[in-house]
Design a protein that fits this description.
The protein has 116 residues and is an alpha+beta fold. It contains two helices and ten strands. Helices cover 16% and strands 47% of the residues. It comes from Gaetbulibacter aquiaggeris.
Length: 116
Amino acid sequence: MKKVVFVFSIFLIISCSHQIDKENLIGLWDCTSALDIESNEISLPEGEEKFIVTITSDSIIIPETGIEKYTWEIKGDSLVITDLITVYIKELKPTALIVEYDFLGHTQLTFKKIKK
């Protein structure tokens, strides 16, 4: 029984700790949807409306803040945007990104990478 608990504990620890590859974050990200987790309300872009986030190796540009650049770093499984917000990286694939943050409500954003 001790072996089963030990193996289960190791599996749980390994599955909870995923590595974030900084190189996968770099690029242009188009927000495809926003989900208000508390109300389950989904917001989709309307018409030609775009919300594109630019991430470089040393800065991030978020459209709603104008053309201000913020520094960023990865801490564990979160993306810390200096002097702005910390977002939890729920999923990161080479062409898809899902983040969650809690600022005036718990929100989940889904992004699709734009190929250049």
